[in-house]
Design goal:
The protein has 308 residues and is an alpha/beta fold. It is built from 11 helices and 12 strands.
């Protein structure tokens, strides 16, 4: 269904710089391979048992002299019998020497109503199996953990070019929060979940009217609320620095929620799921206790267009 929606949008002239989605979609190999065939860049959250190769396995492209002598009939290309096995991403983080050598980088994701959201992330190039079980080109395995609760860990796979920065991948991955917040507000404030109709067409019209109401209220708020001053050295709602530019004591991946929502609307972002819970913002008191131990963090511009 998601692929049908995507292909219909593309046929109507819509183009997406990125797609991002939760592990319900990211754990489906055929779905990821279909997006690869469509040349669509994505950052997909994957379950902890998603399997990858940390090193490219060896592939045989023709039969050896021994196989030909014994008359073995095998399909080629194929993996060598003695090869490194695929590993679950949770075990890559825990046991892979290559991953453990990579240092965590700290990112100030955004400022929520209850305090800053700060995550640490690192990335390793890995290989996925294609439809024949053979290794693909390198993919990004992005691992992110919550600074105040290191047990909260998220895993992402991306087919972006190898030169893509960790900050950009994390920016795309966490943009899903904006759409989830928009649907939460639409349900609680605008009655999107009041489906008092029986036909699918009526439900569609109800959803469209709720979304249009949300857009109108967001634009009205932005136009009439006035400019709010920046705080803690962070960029105000009217602008942001370039990627890598220092902004006060900490750098941020997101500007204010309203400004980020506006970018998401302009990017023709559409949610694939309505019921995803919002990521809980950290407690500001605890953050104050840990703030001086975060080290240097990084910032990403808000120019990437993201569709869900």
């Amino acid at each position: 269904m998601a692929l049908e929606q995507y292909q219909r949008a593309v046929a109507n002239g819509v183009r997406f710089a990125w797609l991002t989605f939760d592990e319900g979609y990211g754990g489906k190999g055929p779905f990821l391979r279909a997006l690869k065939e469509l040349n669509q860049s994505y950052v997909a959250e994957v379950p902890v048992n998603f399997c990858v190769w940390t090193r490219r396995p060896a592939v045989l492209y023709q039969a050896s002299a021994r196989d030909r002598h014994h008359g073995h009939r095998r399909h080629y290309p194929r993996l060598k019998v003695k090869n490194n096995p695929k590993v679950e991403v949770q075990n890559v983080l825990a046991y892979s020497p290559r991953m453990r050598k990579i240092p965590w980088e700290t990112y100030h994701v955004k400022d929520g109503t209850k305090g800053p959201m700060v995550w640490q992330a690192k990335r390793l190039l890995v290989y996925l199996p294609d439809e024949r079980g053979l290794p693909t080109r390198p993919y990004h395995l992005l691992v992110a953990r919550h600074v105040l609760d290191p047990s909260e860990v998220k895993y992402f796979i991306s087919n972006a070019p190898e030169s893509t920065s960790v900050a950009t991948l994390l920016r795309v991955a966490f943009t899903r929060w904006i759409i989830e917040r928009a649907f939460e507000d639409s349900k609680t404030e605008l009655g999107m979940d009041h489906f008092e109709v029986r036909k699918f067409g009526s439900i569609q019209r109800h959803l469209i009217l709720s979304c249009l109401s949300h857009v109108f209220l967001s634009e009205f708020c932005l136009e009439h609320r006035g400019e709010k001053p920046g705080f803690d050295g962070l960029p105000g709602p009217g602008g942001h620095g370039d990627a890598g530019a220092a902004v006060g004591a900490g750098w941020t991946l997101f500007a204010e929620v309203c400004r980020a929502d506006r970018y998401a609307v302009e990017a023709n972002a559409t949610a694939q799921r309505q019921g995803s819970p919002l990521p809980p913002p950290p407690n500001d008191c605890s953050f104050t206790c840990h703030r001086h131990h975060l080290g240097r963090s990084n910032q990403v511009s808000l120019e990437a267009l993201v569709a869900l």
